[in-house]
Amino acid sequence: QQPVQSPQAVILREGEDAVINCSSSKALYSVHWYRQKHGEAPVFLMILLKGGEQKGHEKISASFNEKKQQSSLYLTASQLSYSGTYFCGTAFGNEKLTFGTGTRLTIIP
Amino acid sequence: GAGVSQSPSNKVTEKGKDVELRCDPISGHTALYWYRQSLGQGLEFLIYFQGNSAPDKSGLPSDRFSAERTGGSVSTLTIQRTQQEDSAVYLCASDRAYNEQFFGPGTRLTVL
Question: For residue A76, what is the DSSP state?
Fold first, then answer.
């Protein structure tokens, strides 16, 4: 099943923070996060495995709540370069990765 | 090459014609995915190859779509009798055993 992302879109001023959520109806084994800039292919940000760990990448970090079957991506002190569409991908055991519907993030000066 | 490559980068075809899209994954990557992305939309899964296992074709939208992967490496996505609704960017990705996916630059297909 396709994970559900929220919000669908968000507009921030440079320097503001944002949280993007990814929820699954099934128990998660791993969660991937990707960012796609306009006209480009998606680029990997990070992967989280079950265990509730949190990872960071620049000022972007993510958490994985196994109990809630949810992952959240945190963007702090957003920069113009963070604009794009963020996709989470979920996998259950050895099954293929399934991407969510995406969250469009726009950063304005 | 170091990354996933796809060819052609752009393809314009007439309705009813067949097209072939090619993907060269990163050497050693056992998994290969095909996705379709319409303008402003998400990633629509099409087909998944993992090692020598039978491919997961559950995302193919119709029997006009088919794909093969030869020798565990190069893959070709074939669309027969193209329709205007097939117009989209077709993305290929590969990974090594359930790790991060590396995407190719995509093929933009336009069906007139």
Answer: -
Q: Which residues pair with A82 in a beta bridge?
A: none
CB of B30 closer than 8 Å to CB of B51 = yes
Q: Which H or E run includes B109?
A: strand B107-111
Q: Is B76's Cβ below 8 Å from some Cβ in A? A: no
Q: Do B42 and A89 touch (CB under 8 A)?
A: no
The tokens describing A93, both together, are 């055991």
CB contact under 8 A, B101 and A94: no
Q: Tell me A25's DSSP state.
A: S
> Average pLDDT, stretch A1-25?
94
A29-44, pLDDT tens digit by residue? 889 999 999 999 999 9
Instruction: Please report the DSSP string for B56-71 in residue order.
Output: B-TT--STTEEEEEST
